[in-house]
Amino acid sequence: MSDSPKHTNRLINETSPYLLQHVHNPVDWYPWGEEALTQAKQQDKPILLSIGYAACHWCHVMEHESFENEQIAAIMNKHFISIKVDREERPDLDEIYMNAVQMLTGQGGWPMTMFLTPELKPFYGGTYFPPDNRYGRPGFPQVLLGVAEAYRERPDAVGEQAEKIITNLNQLAAMEGHGHQLTTDMLDRAYQDYLSRFDHHEGGFGNAPKFPPSMGLSLLLRHWHRTGNLNALNMVEVTLEKMARGGMYDQLGGGFHRYSVDERWLVPHFEKMLYDNALLSVAYLEAYQATGKVFYRQIATETLDYVLSEMYDAEKGGFYSTQDADSEGVEGKFFVWMPDEVEGLLGEGKAKIFCEYYDITELGNFEHKNILHVQTPPDLFARKLGMDLGDLEDILTEGRRKLFEVREKRIKPGLDDKILTSWNGLMIRSMAMGYQVLGDERYREAAEKSARFVLSELSQDNGLLLRTHRAGKSHLNAYLEDYSYFVAGLINLYEATFALEWLKEAERLNQIMIDQFWDEANGSFFFTSKNHETLIVRSKPGYDGATPAGVSLAIHNLLRLDKLLNCPDFREKVETTLDVYYHQIERSPSGSAQMLCELDFLLSTPKEIAIAGQRESEGTHAALAAIHSRFVPNKVLALASDEEDISDLIPLLESKTQVDGKATIYVCENYTCQAPTTDVEELAELLKSP
């Protein structure tokens, strides 16, 4: 009896794990490309565009229910050219057609199911469709037959609908500035917007489902830093504590799941994304700098350690994309527990304490099983039980270790091991900051190794970047976010190591980004480059999604490189860009949090810190420790040593020399430098806000 699969489609030559998951569907899938688009025109068939990603639970559900179903596949094959796209590889397609889905339905998500004319114009779509009528949604076969009939019998109506959507998409993309004044009022209105939606009991903003508001927390910390408003700091602290004690945080292995389906951060969608853990580790590191609370340091450390353990290629460098929500076909199975399992590992007495602390009960808190989460902080829990805090922590530490060891023997969730330039940029930035704040050499080594991987394996001969790498193959032109995230990582890496190669690469790639993506006519940056394939619209998205808008980190880089390299035209581009998105920021401040962080930098007087001293000297270490132990969000940092004169590259370092042979710190702002100091306590005063 043959073990060979019954069906194999055109996805067989792809590298994306998500596309390869569908390679043996009976659906005659095409990857996005010339062959599929030509077939649609030649056969005059509408395109069924299905977009998802490997860790997406409902993508797996729809595949099992519909794409593995021979009858449904037969309908698809008869009436459509079906194209499967990994949104993580092709964010340009995802962005355009997700906007179309939202215009049609008022909501979005994945899997995305969109129907296009052979000219790629969308005319109908949605997200998940069940195999029959349920959940208030039409069954997928009914949708397929209805769309096919409409395309065949009512072409004028289909064309009219498609043109209406195209007009709306073009209006969405046609953004230009009008000379608005950029003021701190914009930052204050954003604070009020967050305050109006803040959940005072559980943290976060709005109702369930709750997504980690990483960029918003960074913005609120900057608001507190600028104004001294303790309400802003409180919103950050409540949210960070509730998330880290909830089931959305992996209490055994570290790292955050994608989001919480409830308002208490208890039940997550169990996939773990590289970008969430990159962004949240920064939020916890910044909170640790701002408050000095060891809990935030602990969560940042555990999160970065999780990434090194599960999401990192230690041999070659490079960070993987996602871990799946499902294990053995069941969402969350890898992560849940029952009391008898704990008792078998810890014994009755310790198990009782451990189970009470992590809310592990016979009834269960998730589908009759238990997600570990913390309802009462350890000091209060110890007091409640009348026991010593140290004894409690010993029991909890032992329990976590033993449960983790057992869990490691379970079948793990699937790993999407493709390496994306953009998300690696975010993680390089986080690891570099982790090294600065926590002093762990492993984080620096991982950041440097991954930066070298991107520069060697995801770069073309002409110096341009590529988007994705897997199984020895790198391909697809990089997008704006690939450049902006990676350059941001390189700038952080320079400030963490003072190795000039990183700053030089940041400068080179930043210039390529400007050449390839800048809109000379109306300002700001396009999402796709000059040498990208022509799509139905060339957009300039500015809203943050799960990750920052690519344009927001582009101006983040321009602001910092302006201060380091003395490039005033960079600042002009920032002002032009913020003017382009002025109305967007007014309409949705919380959707523009990263951009508002950059506005905060622009309107402040950033600290330009130059250190004259040897990188490994005791004095330099002491100065860096003093700098990185404080929350000084709007700053740049450079080092001048006797080994090389680099003031031509970094004008900030010109004439910066040691005093009395000691590491000497120069703090400059607003074109003026304070008197140099060799005293760490005096440095602390200089770093305070004016």
What does this entry look like structurally?
It is a single chain. By secondary structure, the protein is of the alpha+beta class. It has four domains: 164 residues, 3-Layer(aba) Sandwich (Glutaredoxin), CATH 3.40.30.10; 332 residues, Glycosyltransferase (Alpha/alpha barrel), CATH 1.50.10; 80 residues, no CATH class; 80 residues, Glutaredoxin (3-Layer(aba) Sandwich), CATH 3.40.30. The protein has 26 helices and 19 strands. The chain is globular. The model has no long low-confidence stretch (mean pLDDT 95).
Top-tier CATH class of the largest domain: Mainly Alpha
Gross morphology: globular
Percent of residues in helical segments?
Answer: 40-55%
> What proportion strand?
5-15%
Mean pLDDT: 95
SS field, number of helical segments: 26
Describe, in short, the structure shown.
It is built from 26 helices and 19 strands. By secondary structure, the chain is of the alpha+beta class.
Helix-strand layout with pairing:
Blueprint: H1 17-20, E1 30-31, H2 34-43, E2 47-52, H3 57-67, H4 70-79, E3 81-86, H5 91-105, E4 112-116, E5 122-126, H6 140-153, H7 155-173, H8 185-197, H9 214-227, H10 230-245, E6 259-260, E7 268-269, E8 272-273, H11 274-291, H12 294-310, E9 322-323, E10 326-327, E11 330-331, H13 339-346, H14 348-358, H15 378-385, H16 389-407, E12 415-416, E13 419-420, H17 421-438, H18 441-457, E14 466-470, E15 473-477, H19 480-497, H20 500-517, H21 550-565, H22 568-580, H23 582-587, H24 593-603, E16 607-612, H25 618-628, E17 635-640, E18 664-669, E19 672-673, H26 680-686
Parallel strand pairs: 1-3, 2-3, 16-17
Antiparallel strand pairs: 2-4, 4-5, 6-7, 8-9, 9-12, 10-11, 13-14, 14-15, 16-18, 18-19
Helix pairs in contact: 4-6, 5-7, 8-9, 9-10, 9-11, 9-24, 11-12, 11-17, 12-17, 13-14, 14-16, 17-18, 17-19, 18-19, 19-20, 19-21, 21-22, 21-24, 25-26
